[in-house]
Design goal:
The protein is of the alpha/beta class. The chain is 20% helix and 27% strand. The strands form ten sheets. It has a seven-stranded mixed sheet, with helices on both faces. Strands 2-5-1-6-7-8 form a six-stranded parallel sheet, covered by helices on one side. It has a six-stranded mixed sheet with strand order 16-13-15-14-18-17, with no helix packed on it. α7 (208-218) packs parallel to α12 and α9 runs parallel beside α12. The longest helix is centred in the last third of the chain and has 19 residues, at 506-524.
Length: 611
């Protein structure tokens, strides 16, 4: 399902353009839906209507249905208005969604413009505007301009931008239902801009924080959306807010096994007692509620989780009760509502249960299920491709390789890291130092992955074919980052797919992947930017550090709760990665560390890695 918007100032001709485009594009055989963002004074329901009365009475949803159409109204109450991506996920499968409004959302748009409005062009300030449809000419316009009434040309442009085949051929598209499968397609974000990795003018050595800030600002989600069963949603990222469908607990119930009664019926109120009450016949149990009301001055046997019958607001624990036949006695004091859970005291119907961008864990599945949510809209898993290059690189096998060859350590490591981060790890294999073979493998990778990680071959040497090819055909940017290890970081796009060129040294590849690739991939997967939470712990080592760059040392915790570092800082010592269970992060400035000095420790768990 593709999305394209029509935006513009009031009276610019937006609605008329949408109307004509829908007629034109459906006439070409496409299935089209629309979204209209209403202004604040507008409501889809009006006082006096039966549906309005239903909603005013407290209904969470009202479904209007007739022989012509149906419409579902969902009450937001005090919840914030859902973003466009969430609303799009509610639509049935189609080829194209044309959105009128939502001009602040980042999706491709065409701007409707009329000279009579006297308003400036949005396209000059908004990079998501891909074209202008206007009744006037403009100078220095960086996007295509169409006549506002040339509907066919605008439709051609729109369909070409969305990649829909009939834009060029005029042939009817395959029905949307045939392509939808079992998943519910949602918003497909636009590709990243070709220049998204370009550095500001004059940038040379870049501090780590500046590099992270640039990645955070330049990247955007690229993963699509689908609807999945909650039971199968572990590890997935919510694409929309999950709203509680009912209260939890759904009704007032007992927190203990005991006896329930109305607190007001106790003689002496909340005093020390003693108290005695006659029992009614029967009992209340979880799933088997008591069938009637409990009269004042009497009690009912009640078990944990049972709904409180009418006339019961307080429960006394079984252990505090003496029973003889149909009469009980107990001492106070006992507060009103003791041992009773209120309906909705945990979560109320209509409350935000989990926000969009949250990565679902086992406890989250329990919460969603308890709230009656059977399916959720999630981002499709980010496909992270990992490619190894170089004539010297070989895969470990039965025979011991000669010293001139290097076993491929980075690819299995990076694939495992991607899986730990919840992504779909795509093994792109190994390709030799051959320009044509590398180009073909990258072309294949761009079809199989949403982002590509390479390691090595990204500097300026004679055999660094990755960097040479990306520089010639893939808008390569070499970021020299002030850190140790791993200061070279190559960033590019290949056929619209981002490429992270990591250092070839496994220690440097691990550090740059954990520090730079992890938050970037999370953002592109729809999970937002993640920052590892460090622990300040005493050092169990000594070190003097010069100013000028940030350093990451392989480290692990001692039994005493201090942090020790690997014996060698050499970036070729791969055994230090297996020895460590985290990294010590040393700041950019100079410092001297002695045993006991507090240092920042990033555990593997804080870096999103198992172990």
């Amino acid at each position: 399902m593709q999305i394209f918007g029509v935006v513009g100032w009031k009276n610019s001709g937006k609605t008329g353009l949408v109307e004509r485009l829908v007629a034109e594009i459906t006439g070409r055989g496409f299935v089209v839906s629309t979204v209209k963002h209403a202004h604040h004074a507008f409501d889809v329901d009006q006082p006096g209507k039966d549906s309005f009365r239903h909603r005013a009475a407290g209904a969470q949803e009202v479904l209007l249905t007739s022989y012509k159409r149906w419409a579902l109204m969902h009450e937001l109450r005090d919840a914030p208005e859902p973003p466009l991506a969430v609303q799009l996920a509610r639509l049935a499968p189609c080829d194209l969604v044309i959105v009128e409004g939502y001009k602040r959302e980042d999706y491709p748009k065409i701007e409707a413009n009329r000279a009579a409005t006297g308003q400036p062009l949005l396209a000059r300030e908004d990079g998501s505007v891909r074209a202008v449809a206007s009744d006037q000419e403009f100078d220095d316009l960086h996007v295509p301009r169409f006549d506002l009434d040339d509907t066919a040309a605008i439709a051609d442009f729109l369909l070409a931008e969305c990649g829909l085949a009939a834009a060029a051929t005029g042939e009817p598209a395959a029905p949307a239902e045939a392509r939808a499968g079992d998943a519910l397609p949602g918003l497909t974000p636009p590709p990243l801009r070709d220049d998204c990795f370009a550095l500001p003018s004059g940038t040379s050595w870049m501090p780590v924080e500046d590099a992270l800030a640039l990645l955070r600002d330049r990247l955007s989600p690229v993963a699509g959306q689908e609807s999945v069963a909650v039971a199968a949603a572990a590890g997935r990222v919510l694409a929309g807010d999950a709203i509680a469908l009912r209260d939890n607990p759904p009704g007032a119930n007992s927190a203990v096994d005991g006896y329930g009664f109305a607190h007001a019926s106790l003689a002496g109120g909340a005093g020390a007692g003693p108290y005695s009450l006659d029992l009614v016949a029967g009992r209340a149990a979880a799933g088997a509620p008591y069938g009637g009301a409990v009269p004042a001055g009497r009690a009912v046997r009640i078990l944990t989780g049972a709904l409180l019958p009418e006339g019961v607001d307080t429960v006394v624990m079984e252990e505090d009760v003496a029973r003889e036949g149909d009469r009980i006695a107990f001492n106070g004091p006992l507060k009103p509502g003791a041992n009773a859970r209120r309906a909705g005291e945990d979560v109320q119907a209509g409350d935000l249960a989990l926000a969009a961008g949250h990565r679902l864990r086992a406890p989250d599945l329990a919460l969603l299920s308890a709230l009656g949510i059977a399916r959720v809209t999630v981002h499709t898993r980010l496909r992270v491709g990992v490619l190894s290059t170089g004539d010297e690189v070989i895969t470990p096998g039965e025979a011991i390789a000669p010293a001139s060859k290097t076993y491929d350590a980075n690819r299995p490591m990076l694939l495992a890291m991607a899986r730990d981060w919840g992504h779909d790890a795509v093994d792109l294999g190994h390709v030799r130092d051959d320009r044509d073979a590398l180009r073909a493998r990258l072309d294949e990778a761009a079809k199989r992955a949403d982002v590509i990680l390479t390691s090595g071959g990204a500097s300026a040497g004679d055999e660094d074919h990755v960097s040479a090819l990306l520089r010639e055909e893939g808008s390569l940017q070499a970021w020299r980052i002030a850190l140790k290890p791993g200061r070279p970081l190559a960033l590019a796009q290949w056929r619209g797919v981002p490429v992270f060129g990591l250092p070839g040294n496994p220690v440097a590849a691990f550090v740059t992947a954990a520090i730079f690739a992890r938050p970037s991939l999370s953002l592109m997967a729809g999970g937002g930017w993640v920052t590892p939470r460090a622990l300040m712990l005493p050092a169990a080592f000594s070190k003097t550090k010069k100013a000028g760059r940030r350093e990451f040392l392989r480290a692990r915790l001692t039994d005493a709760g201090a942090v020790e570092v690997f014996a060698s800082e050499g970036s070729g010592r791969i055994s230090g990665l297996a020895w460590a269970n985290g990294l010590v992060e040393l700041p950019d400035e100079a410092l001297s560390i002695e045993p006991g000095t507090p240092v920042r420790f990033l555990s593997c768990a804080a870096l999103g890695l198992c172990g």
